[in-house]
Amino acid sequence: MDFFDRRIVGYHTSKSMTTDLIEQAFLKAHRLRQPPKGLVFHSDSDRGSESPYAHTMQEVAAYLKYYNQERLHSSNGVQSPIEYENPFRKVAGWT
For the whole model, what pTM was predicted? Predict the structure, then answer.
């Protein structure tokens, strides 16, 4: 989660909890944000379950879409993370 706009920027699901799970989430977040040196990355890898995997993947994807595009956050001026970050995209050079 990007604490600036509360957007989920990196996640990964797997049938087993390995370091690859964390690495893949990190790589997704890094590709999306291309952060400067010194950024803190936090993993919540201990909160998973190894079954039922297929259903879990669908549920996670649906929830993240809702969370990033529809859910209103009071810390974002009652806007979704995507709505909140849009005015800053041009200034920050995000594409």
Answer: 0.52
